[in-house]
Amino acid sequence: MVVRYYFSLLLLILIGSSCKKINQPGSIDPPVGPPAGSFTFNELKVNDVFSGFSYYSVNQKPIIKLSFSAAIDKNTVAAGIVMKNKGNVTVALDITYENNDKTIILSPISALQPITMYFLDAQTSLKSTDGSKLLSPITINLVTAIDPSDKFPIISDQELLTKVQRQTFKYFWDFGHPASGMARERNTSGNTVTSGGSGFGIMAIITGIDRGFITKAEGLSRIQKIISFLKTADRFHGAFPHWIDGNTGKVIPFSQKDNGGDLVETSLLMQGLLTARQYFSEENEVESTLRSDINALYIAVEWDWYRKDNSNTLYWHWSPNYNWDMNMPIRGWNEALITYVLAASSTTHTISKTVYDNGWANNGAMKNGNTYYGVQLPLGPASGGPLFFSHYSFLGINPIGLTDNYANYETQNKAHALIQYNYAKANPKNYYGYGENCWGLTASDDINGYLAHEPANDNSVISPTAALSSFPYTPEESMKALKFFYYKLGDKLFKEYGFVDAFSLQHQWFADSTLAIDQGPIIVMIENYRSQLLWNLFMSCPEVKTGMKKLGFSSPHL
């Protein structure tokens, strides 16, 4: 009987065990501990808060608590827990313990640097008092807060605008190509000069003369040098290539098949040249010759030929080797309104309103009308696209009071800038630093190369040119951004040629580059905000008045 009893009891135990193994409903497996010879990480707090393994706006002496499943061997902590910055420099730590040595409390001995990324690594070499190793390593990312102090002396708003214009002007003046006078593509471009960026540079030089940064004679001499170079540089049915060798004038391919005429870049160059023609208006031999040379360059552009087989659309590229293989029609809404305006304004190779309506406006398909972040947008893609759409053509074209069959362009450009401002305030991706003082997305250098940043393509990279070139549209919002960029970020952002091209507080990345197409709109659009100088000059061109009226534009400036 006793044997039978124990046999029956053993059978019941085995049956119960087998039921659990097939996971009957309601059964619970017992917790599995760490493998023998190891222990685990249990809890993390930074300044008594847990929010995952990345922390932003951290103070300069944070208190970091790491809790584990076992008491820690203190002799292994110095090598097992290491804090470094992005430059791989080790941070000395003050280390204490609590919870029977299961919790390590760490804090930097010296204050961390502001707006800097640090990494705290707990490695598997960390041991417990019984000799076990940490089962898995952990890494904590810490981004320190912005130092709220002003990095430069406070000056008046007008003085600040002048300072930014003067410093940005140096990109085109001090760094202009020595042989051609043209604007180099970027601060590392060597002999590669840019046609569109040089158009911006010419307008910057005119601003520099008017602001007293240089004399009129100095500015005139530099523009003469540019024009002399352009007269002998490669052209393709009158259109210049995107990139040119500043010594030889020969085309430098922008890509394999983009080795010929670029009609949009040419129009940005012509916008600057026509502005210069209107500025140098004195009746003397030097200025008369300058005007004549500019006219010759402009009338030689075969805008109508770039319709590709006489279609009712302008095309961006043509190559002597690849013909129309790039196959890129110029359709709105983007930065290229100036191309259709100058094509319509040409006295030798003009286009009709039909080409504008069919090609640029795509028979009305460029209209939008939706509301984003509380602002209705007349034209363009969702949320407006990158902000250079509202800058490049409007360095010369005055959008104030400008209308046609498709939009009010003052409304369009203001809406575009305000959508981006409101987007940064809403900060739907929760990027560190975004807000009313830090906004502006456009095409610029990026952490991983180059990117057309916009709300629909946002990876945390802010481009100073976006907000600063929007001064005519959003003066208060742009001034907030300017003061934050200048006073709070200081020399991390404001350098030899003005503001660097882009930055990300999320990733603690600051570009070391400056680009002609981003520096130019800053100085020019700030000037248009202050005096409308470039707008007044360009809009005074008789051909432009005629061409814009032909396309159906109405404006108090026509």
From TrEMBL:
Residues 58-139 form the SbsA Ig-like domain. PROSITE patterns: PROKAR_LIPOPROTEIN. Pfam families: Big_5, Glycoamylase. It comes from the Bacteria. Residues 329-542 form the Glycoamylase-like domain. Keywords: Signal. This is Beta-glucosidase. The lineage of its organism: Bacteria, Pseudomonadati, Bacteroidota, Sphingobacteriia, Sphingobacteriales.
